[in-house]
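Exercise 7b. Backbone tokens:
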């Protein structure tokens, strides 16, 4: 299981904007700070804006800022919005489809379910503000 690079950058953009507080940040500044091209930033920013994580501010001092409080955004919120629901195996999807019709007796089903549940719990339990706070306390 691997997150898409756009999901990784979406997390980094949201973290960066959360660190700026209510300050409006330009696309050029965020792209430079995160080491991404301006065009790539705009592609990801457009999606996370549409998803409600950031908002744009128009005008000569315009740019972007966080649309929600950092305490109200978890890593799971971002990952799910960018990737879709987390499902590490087909048998764990809503329909419970098993190509072998062995879900009740499958030896690995329980482990896969546990891994998936723990991954979701860990991502859901990690708020953007927690990551910022941890970073401040480490320096």
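Sequence design result:
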């Amino acid at each position: 299981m691997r997150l898409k690079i756009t999901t990784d950058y979406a997390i980094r953009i949201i973290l960066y904007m959360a660190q700026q507080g209510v300050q409006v940040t330009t696309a050029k500044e965020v792209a430079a700070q995160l080491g991404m091209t301006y065009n790539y930033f705009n592609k990801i920013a457009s999606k996370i804006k549409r998803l409600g994580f950031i908002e744009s501010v128009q005008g000569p001092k315009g740019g972007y800022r966080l649309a929600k409080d950092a305490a109200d955004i978890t890593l799971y919120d971002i990952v799910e919005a960018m990737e879709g629901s987390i499902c590490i195996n087909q048998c764990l999807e809503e329909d419970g489809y098993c190509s072998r019709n062995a879900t009740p007796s499958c030896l690995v089903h329980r482990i896969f379910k546990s891994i998936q549940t723990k991954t979701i719990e860990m991502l859901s339990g990690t708020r953007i503000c927690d990551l910022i706070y941890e970073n401040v306390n480490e320096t």
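Instructor comment: Residues 31 and 38 are 5 Å apart (CA to CA). The chain has a mean pLDDT of 90.
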